[in-house]
Write a structure and sequence with these properties.
Helix content is 57%, strand content 1%. It is mainly alpha-helical. Among the domains are: 77 residues, no CATH class; 98 residues, no CATH class. Helix 2 crosses helix 3, helix 4 packs across helix 12 and helix 8 crosses helix 9.
Length: 385
Amino acid sequence: MAEVHAVAGGEQLRRRSLGPAWSALTCALLLTLLAGCAVEGPSAPQRSAEAIQADIEALLPPRVPQRAAWAVDLQLVFAGLKLAPTTENVCAVLAVTEQESTFNPDPPVPNLGRIAREEIVRRAGRLGVPEVAVTLALQLRSPDGRSYADRLAAVKTERELSAIYEAFIGQVPLGQRLFAGFNPVRTGGPMQVSIDFAEAHVQQRPYPFPAAQTVRHEVFTRRGGLYFGTAHLLDYPAAAYGGTMLYRFADFNAGRWASRNAAFQQALAVASGRKLDLDGDLFLPDPTQPGQTEAAARSLGDALGMSDRAIRRDLERSRGEDFDRSDLAIKVFALAEQRSGQPQPRAVVPRIVLQSPKITRRLTTEWFARRVDERYRRCLQRASG
């Protein structure tokens, strides 16, 4: 998953004072030109919701069930997020959805019952609870009449598993001890979006649709899963990517701006001569124990003309939109290009090995991003065809 876009640095133009008469004339000319532009030609007509839904339905992969319902929900999602339903944006969302769930709002996970049982035992062991106590707790009868052990053995989807955990936590004293305030089902829905992300997102922007239950429950619905997944994928600025969706696909897996941050790590490795993991994670929580990226940046303090404190301050901006405009990023890229004699990419797909109890083979963020990108390009071909 790895590639590139240069960020152009801008020069500020200084204004010359040419006197009030000239300024007035200039303003008048500008107003005339702007007025001419405003009335020249008809404005683009607003497309109806029905027209947008028809376009989305045409872009869906073949054999997707309930095509009209998917199209309606996705059109509402773009309207709710105030994002343009362009072919590129729609195809990006459809590609992630196809990769993550093949358009199933509640996709089955192979061997989920066994995985869940092992996770319970593992968590109990870390808390000093013997496995025999866990076994006894799971024999208790749950609200639907079955034992928790039976429900776990039969569970097929993450939504079912999340419901079992919630009942277990609320009913069983041992559940409170093992899982109080923590449901280990962390992703869900048709785009397998992070529930933590969804819960944080509604703190910044109210959820625009009626919700019968919690944000967690909404993630497992078709519309809610599309809403939070689309927000995670598209609803943030990423100028360094130059419109290349591959990096957004990588960020969907690794975290927002991870591709931009990985490019910074690559430039820092060139500038410092140190080998760095290109994972997009630039600092550890404790500034007194710097990670490898922060240590490499500090080693260049004299060359960059920056103190350890200034370096740390800029690294902490890496979880926001403007890190590439920080002194640290600008100076590191300039030094790397000076020492290498060639331009450095401003976006690189992070190199991360994916870890999850659900994963049974070696997968990486690059594998994910490129698989999604293939689906994205097929969607664009459907649009042009």
